[in-house]
Amino acid sequence: MTYVESATVEETLGEFDDRRANLIPILQEIQAVYSYLPEDLLRRVSRKLRVPLPQVYQVATFYRCFSLTPCGRHVIQVCLGTACHVRGAPRVLDRVLRDLKLPVTGTTHDLQFTVETVRCIGCCGLAPVARVDKNVHAHLTQTKVPGLLKKYRRQADASAAEPTRRG
Amino acid sequence: MLTLRSPQELEALRTTCRGPGGSGRPCLSVCAGSGCTASGAQEVLQSLRRELERQGLQDAVEVKSTGCHGFCEKGPVMVVWPEKVFYNGVGPRDAAALVASVSNGRKPVERLLYKDPVSGARVLHEDEVPFYRRQQRILFGNNGQIDPKDIRDYVRVGGYAALAKALATLSAPEVVDMVSRSGLRGRGGAGFPTGVKWQALRGNPVRPHYLICNADEGDPGAFMDRSLLEGNPHSVIEGMIIGAYALDASEGFIYVRAEYPLAVENLRAALTQAEQYGLMGDDILGSGHSFRIHVVQGAGAFVCGEETALIASIEGRVGEPHARPPYPVQKGLWGKPTVINNVKTWASIPVVVNRGAEWYASIGTERSKGTMVFSLVGKIINTGLVEVPMGITLREMIYEIGGGIPKGKALKAIQIGGPSGGCIPASLIDLPIDYEALTGAGSMMGSGGIVVMDEDTCMVDVARYFMEFLEEESCGKCFPCREGTQRLRGILTRISQGKGSESDLALLEDAGWMIKESSLCGLGQTAANPVLSTLRYFRDEYLAHVREKRCPAKVCRELIRYAIEPTLCDGCHACVRVCASEAILGEKDQPHRIDSAKCIRCGACLEVCQPDAVLVS
Lengths: 167, 617
Hints:
The complex is a heterodimer. Chain A is of the alpha+beta class.
């Protein structure tokens, strides 16, 4: 996934003024557009807000929403909240990782999927759940996992190479 | 679009707002909260609209989406107005039947009515469903009646009347006094009296004053703040505007978790509308008072629920807490005096102002006033959101509202208060739910997440789960929390793998108390609760793990084995197909068996086996 140095960047950065409080919203916007935080953009944000680069890096690595490496086309968030945990979420996660041949959470080589864990998305009544992009999938079992992946893999094959917008 | 310039104009507007079914047309209102949406509410809405169009009835029957009803387990749920017929488990294919039930006055769709699990009888209305019968929904009652994206719906049910009342008839100190007398305590977890906090801010001469709404609902298993922001955002906004008037603030912030996109969307829409109608911004309802609210989206850090960490996050820094004092009312956002309250606390303010402090204080117990909203989840039949007066017992909560434990299993423990809370054993089922009783039992109210655990839940595993969570979410600033959570998690992992010893239990207790006493913020100070409370009530289970290397609940992977009972196995091959490690052997139609050496104990075979021939020992 390459990132395009273009008017988009100017536009994105231009929406915000130079207050320190805008650091996190700016990083969120960059993450949403590029699916990660490219290094040169972090440098530009640092200059724009006059916040030292190490502090920008500190924020970028402290919060869970940010990634310094590109994410896959589909982001799978397996909920590991308490309700999901007691209803079998760890097995669902294991199955997702095993089927995608990932040793731990992360992005697949072909950049189709990023697997993350999330601690509660507030759909506890439907536990265990996973969110893929913006869709919540309820009452998962590990035997439902292959079908779920297949559905998104097909979509990934069909759709043009557009970076995922996360939100 | 009209800008309201006085309380009278607001009242005039109210008379023109019609409710669902109020215009003489029947109305199909579908819950569009996150839960029902995940169950397919949007598809239901689409197919209802399509069906109405197909029959040319789009002008004769109204379709609308509403906020969360709280009964997520049975979603998507919907109500047909004006008869208020309540349906659950609705799907897109039911559209024709539903349209028919309103278009030509036919009977309700019997099969979509709620079925009482005990008597088997069908129930016609929402308030007759046992799940709702014991509830007192003063904060959540309007969720199911209003479209969160239409301010007129909120105005119709009495919205912004409390604001008008405060501006027109109460002085700022009178509002603060009212909140004090109501006995309202912070709904975020610690239960600090809201009135005391507000008095402290009022007494601070430094300006400006800031208000913050803490909607960083991080406790796993809790989703009431999400539901309220999604379903009735104006109630929170109104509470903050009243607070701004009482506390002389002109700017407020709502800090919402990144994981709640729909809440952010509905909140932003509500703020825009409030400003358009002159209920927010400059010269609110002609009072000369000004107030603006900004939405700040979190970036994924549990610790940001802690107030000083949340403030750091709004300022654009990492969410590391600092020691208190100074408290935010002394030195908060950008060093200025700040009041920070939870979503439900803010939403309670209009109720207190409308109904009066005395009315509010009459609900609940001696020291815990009003209603509390709980999310009832885990191994329970009726999962969902529950609003009840403080002081009801866990038994009423679990059995009368929650409908008991699924599959006839035994209740084992009730986990309250998220990772900061503790596990209460089934033997304390008659404990009343209030701040003091829960703390006394080694748990805490927290934000109100109740996770029910049955006999199949391993308490060592639960403790390990929470420590893993806290280890991940510890910000790392102070040593006891950073290192302590790591050590505790390490010991618990060892025990769950059958590698623990009895001395580990003493070590867990020692280290637990150390973290509790020496950590900087609430996260660390309560981090050991899950471990200490499970050790206190479920010591036997720990001992089985360390002495006999046995997991009584059959959860800890290293301590269990899967086998197939040959007399039950019908040789259907279903398990063979799902087995991840090709560990299941046997011809079709012949009893299968599991090769223990290959088996990775993933449990897939257990999930698919129809005759329940897979045994765990």
